[in-house]
Amino acid sequence: MSKYTTGEIAKLCGVSVRTVQYYDSRNILVPSELSEGGRRLYSEDDLKRMRIICFLRDVGVSINSIGELFADEHPENIISILLDQQEQVLREEVNEQQRKLGIIESIKRELKEIENFSVESIGDIAYVMKNKKALRKMRWIMVLTGIPVTMLQWVSIILWITNGLWWLFVLWVCVAVPWGTIVSISYFKRVAYICPECHQVFKPRFKEVFWAYHTPKMRRLTCPKCGRKGLCIEVYADKEGKSNG
Which one, of 100, 123, 99, lies nearest residue 111 by Cα? Predict the structure, then answer.
């Protein structure tokens, strides 16, 4: 039967000699015998065991878990549990890395929209992303509540043209005006704006923000701190935004 020295088994398994020695010190790969000169010699079974250790280490199983596995009288009973646990750990790590990748991609998209980039711009982007979900949710609520109002508008117009039922259009006006007022006031109470010049988070007056030119993400406003008039980034107003208003 073949015998392998520490260097040979390390080479066969693609690891360093120090790694083999470390596994020996942890009693998970003890050599089968020692030569007359005191050299460690490993058997074919030791080589198989080493390859199993390397496989488990490659998938992230800890040394302690490997030691417990080999110390058990029936390792075949716990190997599946051990692999299931490691699979869960790896999936969580993958999800976390994907989350971080998503953040980086979002930052890169936001950076493309910034004309004058500065270090403070990163803080603005962080603020926007922090409250992005809340802002998106609020906008969806506005859209969903506006669908029935829009449907009533078109039905009333069609019936007025085809059947002369003008009163239905009047009914729509009576519904649309209060709805639009309530939604607008509620919306602007919950949003704030970031000045791209001085990076101040502020809340403008309702009249100013209501009539201002805007895009889906920005609105042309006057910063109360630096006086700059131009497009400001719209964000969901948390406590920080309210305190700066």
Answer: 123
Backbone angles phi, psi at 202, to 5 degrees: -140, 160
Residues 95-128 pLDDT 10s: 989 888 887 787 777 666 666 656 566 666 666 6
Tokens of 109: 């998209």
The alpha carbon of 38 is separated from its chain's Cα centroid by a whole number of angstroms, namely 55
Single-letter amino acid code for the residue at 101: L
Position 170: which residue type?
V
What are the φ and ψ backbone dihedral angles of 33, each rounded to 5 degrees? -155, 170
* Cα(19)–Cα(134) distance, integer angstroms: 50
Report pTM. 0.48
Nearest CA to 70 out of 84, 56, 58 is that of: 56
pLDDT tens-digit profile of 158-217? 989 898 888 988 999 999 999 888 888 888 888 889 888 888 889 898 888 888 998 888
DSSP helix/strand/coil, 7: helix
Q: Alpha carbon 89 to chain centroid distance?
A: 17
Determine contact, residues 50/10, Cβ cutoff 8 Å. Answer: no
Nearest to 125 by CA among 108, 102, 101: 108
Q: Is residue 16 left, alpha or beta, with left meaning phi > 0 and alpha meaning psi from -120 to 50?
A: beta
DSSP labels for 176-237? Answer: HHHHHHHHHHHHHHSEEEE-TTT--EE---HHHHHHS-B-SSEEEEE-TTT--EEEEEEEE-
Q: At CB < 8 A and 24+ separation, what contacts does 213-218 make?
A: 217/113
**Which of 28, 52, 38, 39 shows the shortest CA–CA distance to 6?**
39
